Amino acid sequence: MGIPIIPRVTDAVGGVVGGVGRLLRKNKLKEEDEETDRLVKEYMASVPGLANVSSSAQLNLMGEGLKGKAELSVRGTTQWLHRSKWDVDKVDSRDRGTPDEWIQRHPELIRLTGRHPFNCEPPPKLLNEAGFLTPASIHYVRNHGAAPNIKWNEHRIRVEGNVPRVRTFSMNDIVNMPRQSIPVTLVCAGNRRKEENMLKQTIGFNWGQCGVGTSMWTGVPMHVFLKICGVTSVSANRQYLCFQGPDGELPKGKDGSYGTSIPLAMALNPANDVMIAYEQNAKKLTPDHGYPVRIIIPGWIGGRMVKYLTKISVTATPSENFYHFNDNRIMPPHVDAEMAAAEGWWYKEEYIFNQLNINSAILYPDHDQVVKHE
């Protein structure tokens, strides 16, 4: 009589565990759907003339615009933001023994600088398959060093320089500010450099054509943030907005930080959509993409969008950070790296590289791929 009891007890425990598991999964999916609904509504509200259109018409417009790239549920959630097929759940064996061995990464990413630091792009086929929005797991990555292991509750952003008073914000302060969600295409300044290096070798490594990705970014509009900090206009001692990552993050420069700057006037203009972002595709940023917070500047190169944002300074002059001057410059054809260093070309503001021209690349067939004619 004792034997039948065991499976019944097991079934009961299994039923309870299974029920709890289903409940947790249901709650998680509900949270994701609510987040996605919120993101879609914010985006719809941001499109001129669309806010007054009926919900059904909005869905028709959105569905028509995406041409099958997204599957819209009855409630209008964009399921492509939470496609599990793009999720990664383990550390790549190539990262074992490096400072990044705690980070989960997609195994199909093409590594451009060996094991470390991590610089990568997706294969053309994978990027094309992802559709309009690029999942974070296959979005290109440009790292100058190890990704810092930052804790949400401990991270702070310090605002200093020519401001009414120095202020420090926690991540909870940031997420409670007004926010916006917009699709932005990021492009590495070195995208397609491999083709340039085939003609004349540069000092940069061989990016293919997939150092590009489009995501839905969510964060605080910079003009709103600056207003909170008491900065609403440009003046003689307020000309630039400098961004900086953590001290000691990188091997070069005075303090080992990555920093750069943009004109303050640009950041204050709401039309430019500069933002302090903490979400990518309705989820918190991943370590490779700047967790917990980064800068997003639509239309500018990725090198100006500082990750792991730690400090914002309002200044009269551009950033003096090592990487602001010694990276992302386009020199005249006759100036090589040695001449640039010897004659101070890196410090000439007229050769700074901020914006990209529109260009296109063939994703299929791939380089050297043989296409059979049938």
TrEMBL record:
The keyword Protein transport does not apply. Coiled coil: none annotated. Its cofactor is Mo-molybdopterin. Keywords: Iron, Metal-binding, Molybdenum, Oxidoreductase. GO terms for biological process: oxoacid metabolic process; sulfur compound metabolic process. Transmembrane segments: none annotated. The keyword Iron applies. It holds the Pfam family Oxidored_molyb. One of its GO terms (molecular function) is molybdopterin cofactor binding. Residues 144-323 form the Oxidoreductase molybdopterin-binding domain. InterPro entries: Mopterin_OxRdtase_euk (IPR008335), OxRdtase_Mopterin-bd_dom (IPR000572), OxRdtase_Mopterin-bd_sf (IPR036374), OxRdtase_Mopterin_BS (IPR022407). This is Nitrate reductase [NADH].
